[in-house]
Specification:
The chain has four helices and seven strands, in the order E-H-E-E-H-E-H-E-E-H-E. 22% of the residues lie in helices and 23% in strands. The radius of gyration is 15 Å and the shape is globular.
Amino acid sequence: MSQPAPAAAGVLLAAGAGTRFGMPKVLAERGAWLRAAVAALSGGGCDEVVVVLGAAVVDVPAPARAVIAPDWRRGPGASLRTGLAALPAADFAVVLTVDTPDIGANVVARVLGAARRAPSGIARATYDGRPGHPVVIARGHWAALSDDEGARGFLAGRADVAAVDCADLATGADIDTR
């Protein structure tokens, strides 16, 4: 009998004010981006999903639950730390941002599968060679995610991140302006 896959949890970063966008992106398209991201995480293999909120507090769609980042103004790292702290049982965190609405469950599943196979437990989607989301990080690395940039500084220069081409599934573009 085979062992069950290690538990994975989605962390949807949706706390920012969306200054360049003109409003918090969690509100974009009347919540359609939020709903799409939760569906991508839950449908892509995440056993649970937390939505990290801050600038705007909204009801989140099932099966997700909301957590509030009180220091969201400090940057994505503060939001990421809040999300990770809300995951006591997960072995992997699948980090996605709310402003990447074309990323679906197929992308999440591909990157999560790669992280589970990678010796480091770290994988990142790429789109025509450009790094993007989701990023999957095994629990053993979470303590290293301490700066306010989120995972960017942690991932920079690492040779053990499995790059997972997902250009056949999505653009991975993050939307910063309307």
